## 1
Amino acid sequence: MPSRKSAEKLKTVRPSGTADENFFSLVYEVTRQIPRGRVTSYGAIAAALGAKSSARMVGWAMNGCHRIKPKVPAHRVVNRNGMLTGKFHFDPPERMEELLKKEGVKVKNDQVVEFKKLFWDPGEG
DNA sequence: ACGCTGACTATTA
DNA sequence: CTAATAGCCAGCG
């Protein structure tokens, strides 16, 4: 069973009943559903999971995105302004906008162009 | 165990 | 308009 799901094992799991690993898994899942050439925000994902107030946790979950099995397009996740705030967390920081541009998303000054138009809501998928 | 930090967001000044 | 503050919750010293 638990073969790869341990992706977010970076914390030992807490039986307290708080965020738990489920939240992390959901974040990764939703992030994977982002269509190519589209982007979304941390808050949108958090809200889709019922934790709109915990947008930070989404960002924190992204911390382990690179070690997950199915690659997670974290580059498609930006802040609510469309700014690539997490670009510095990528292997090479330039990788984020590089991938976005490759998918057809224009990036200017670390910010997604026409972000409002390219925005994808997890609930619509 | 306490406190700071952080890939966020909304509100208030 | 911009700047500062509060709320969120998990990880680390």
## 2
Amino acid sequence: MELRHLKYFKTVAEELHFGRAARRLKMAQPPLSLQIRQLEEEMGVLLFHRTKRNVELSEEGKVFLEKVNQILENLDEAIETVRRLNRGEVGEIAVGFIATVAYGILPTIIKHYRHKYPEVHVELKQLTSAEQLKALKEETIQIAILSEPTDSEEINFEVIRKEPFVIALPKEHPLATETSPIELIRLANEPFIITGRKANQNHYDMVINSCYQEGFSPIIKQETEEMFTVLSLVAAGIGIALVPSSMQLLLQNDVVYRNIKDCKFNTVTAIAWISENRSPVVHTFIKLVRDSVIPILS
Amino acid sequence: MELRHLKYFKTVAEELHFGRAARRLKMAQPPLSLQIRQLEEEMGVLLFHRTKRNVELSEEGKVFLEKVNQILENLDEAIETVRRLNRGEVGEIAVGFIATVAYGILPTIIKHYRHKYPEVHVELKQLTSAEQLKALKEETIQIAILSEPTDSEEINFEVIRKEPFVIALPKEHPLATETSPIELIRLANEPFIITGRKANQNHYDMVINSCYQEGFSPIIKQETEEMFTVLSLVAAGIGIALVPSSMQLLLQNDVVYRNIKDCKFNTVTAIAWISENRSPVVHTFIKLVRDSVIPILS
DNA sequence: TAAAAATACTCCATAGGTATTTTAT
DNA sequence: ATAAAATACCTATGGAGTATTTTTA
């Protein structure tokens, strides 16, 4: 027995006429009659009562028709489900992200993604870059949005955004009135607020290096966990800070942002995934990130 | 796509090895590989991740496997259901019967039938012979157990039992002491108890005719609806009766039964059904009635 | 180098076509 | 006389077989 037999049976059962059924199936009548006979022989059951003039379903045929309809429907459904899985239209995905993207790029990405793939369940996990790399390998997340590059062979790493540092100053700070880019060296005697190296190694090192290259070692007045706290302390007049440009959107009151003259360091934001991950959901996600982040880069 | 593809897919998915799967399917490996590739091409989805050394299911394949298992199972089930329908092993049947068979032949038939076909739902309806013929045509019953023959072309009629009349006498009746068959003429002056012509036309006519043929018209002392009531009245000494032989089992106390000499009339019990009824349940029932009634006939 | 899947080809079984017959209305 | 299914016969697609190659552990 083949699906052919079931489909032919269904059509004949619906038409109750071999000629019409054959026309609907775009085939000749004799082979259709033959196939139905084959089906009946294999089942050992007469599915139709036929006279030369009339065809009707037997009781057995009626029952079989119902079941066959169900089966063919289930099959179509199964194929469609698999195809949608393959197109990344259904499924689930866990995305890790660092705190600093939570206010800018992440909401944009997620909004776009959920709009395009409403049937994929997205789980978001705020983690440090290091934790995300671990999570990728442990498969508790499939996508990482982080700042530190990795040399791991098994992980693909793709930078989605580079942004310069800016200087965050209390509103009443003397430098706040300047409009042109400021040389870093002028901050040599300022008290710095900075995130702890453990919480955000990449940012910490970048700040220290930037200053070092300009010939001074910054005075660290305070270390905090969160970037938002850094800006709060600046707003309170405790000190100044170097923060990624996009952080400007986070806190506008009582803080003034100034560009750095000849800024050589950038904060990078990257997306990472296990190279051999073939999940369509993951790849459509990556593709969408590329598409939705390009306008932001400008 | 054909069932072949689904069955092959299932086997390969279970074995995760084309060679072994091919062996299980009693076919060569290359055509199996080809069929799987065809399936994948038609679906537009890679169901297996293959290296030259290793085969594993893709996510899509895993989902598809579950669905395919369900579908193949449903199909097997559907075929089995239809076959059982065809063998008359499942379904329902409504059986009409006349009151006089309720104490002898009917329980035997039903007991045998339910033992052999426990999954057929049997509905029993006590009706007169005439009512049963009507019910057959209206399809409210499929089988009739009755006593009156019919000349209807569309109804099949098969006698399953013939039995002579016997004389039912009160225990203290003078004739009760005789052991040899009694001539009917000796009842010419006895008071008869008889069922009403409306309730049991066949029996009524038979009694009248028997007596008429012997040269007398019976004195009808009392008409009743039920055969059991007839015997009760005999037991009470109200009169005598002519009853079918099998009625002897119905009431033994205070009633004595005697054979009739040269009895020419028999009570017939027959089974009837609509000739063109092809329902296997009906035909297995008929067949079983023939088989289980033969020993009773002896 | 050994095992497993893929490739290349060959063959024949059978799905499907055409022509015709049978049968019931 | 006509319509519809069955029968008879033919064709050719493609499923399955055998032999061989490729690939990777």
